[in-house]
Design a protein that fits this description.
This protein is α/β, with parallel strands linked by helices. Helix content is 30%, strand content 26%. It is built from 15 helices and 22 strands. The protein is globular and about 70 Å long. It comes from Streptomyces humicola.
Length: 469
Amino acid sequence: MVSARVDHADVIVVGLGPGGEDAAGRLAEAGLDVVGIDERLVGGECPYWGCIPSKIMVRSADLLAEGRRITGHAGTAMVHPDWRLAARAVREATADWDDKIAVDRLTGRGTRFVRGTGRLTAPDQVTVADADGNETEIRARRAIVLAVGSEPAVPPIPGLAGTPFWTNHEAIEAAEVPRSLLVIGGGAIGLELGQAFNRFGTAVTIVEGMPRLLPGEEPEAHELLLRVLTEDGLDVHTSALVGSVAYRDGVGFTTNCERGERLTAERLLVATGRRTDLARLGAVAIDVDPDLRALPVDDRLRVVPPVGGRPGVWALGDATGKGAFTHMSMYQAEIVVRGILGQGGAVASYHAVPRVTFTDPEVGAVGLTEAQARGKGLAVRTGYADLASSSRGYVHRVGNEGFIKVVADETSGTLVGATAAGPYGGEILGALAVAVHGRVPLEVLREQIWAYPTFHRAIGDALRGLGTT
């Protein structure tokens, strides 16, 4: 039997991933009565199935690769992978998928926590259903913050539903490595996990429907990763649309691609992006089309501005469609908190969003790709530098493949995008991200002194590749 009760709060935060948790905690510390709602683990995707455990897997796999590079360069070595050690490290980092520490951290900052599924039922109200079906109607006096995150997007491939396919959750929680793994999706998640499992001994096949791996990044990143992954033994198929999936217990998965490939594996990982279910959230209660891909927000992250004493509705994180990154949710949380507290400050800006794919080599990028810049009608020049050539001080280093590519707008004389692919690509990206974010003039960047011998000095070579006007 469903029972209902009514509660009130100054602020209701639905979704307690990194950004939602931070916003709830800061608002509570500011003296507001805050209720935080989540049906899953407090802390969200990042600490349990995303950023942190996946990078433990990636780092462990990278150690194996480095060990295998010793022979012929620094001595001899025999590497024997042991997945149990990596799996144990993941379990320890996630507290075996227990969020007690996170809940205590949240409530310790003054937030009231409600475990359950929250949905909008009025412009100022969220109804929460717990595991037993009991409902609580919570009415906001000042604000509602929607930080519901996203979930794996599973494509409607015939035969897929009902099979024991993996998403990133099952892959991260795996106690053993499969003999073989078929990955549908050649984006960041599919490539990171696919390469990691391969280095632990799994035969991995990547199937990507678009013509390129990392289709949202520069084509040079695809070319680099395709070469490296293939050399490492992964079987990579691009422009390959999966037409059907079949599963037999004890045998595994069989996929049939529309152009004729028939691929088999013990396990199947679906890594085809993420989605936010606005219908389940009850977006219609605030006059938002539930079929939209993301919540429409203004430059202060408001979905519904506060009017005439009525509470406003803000959104942050994946649900805003501005990038499914932890750093994006934290950036947006800052703006949301200032907005609710009436502190003003800078509005949201997305011209210099950084992103990193933690493959080996890493692919770090910021701002616009060349194609995106041209698509916006910008007068574009590009510069390119090969890492191995630019970093001559590392001629004896193994695994120094990569490049720097910069995209400049001739009209403004600044960089509007850049990619750093190679060893420490995500770290090299820092200098490029500052340049794009700060709209640093090209003539100033060209005056920069780049330390030698480093990989980041290739930025200088790429800038020289732009030429002068």
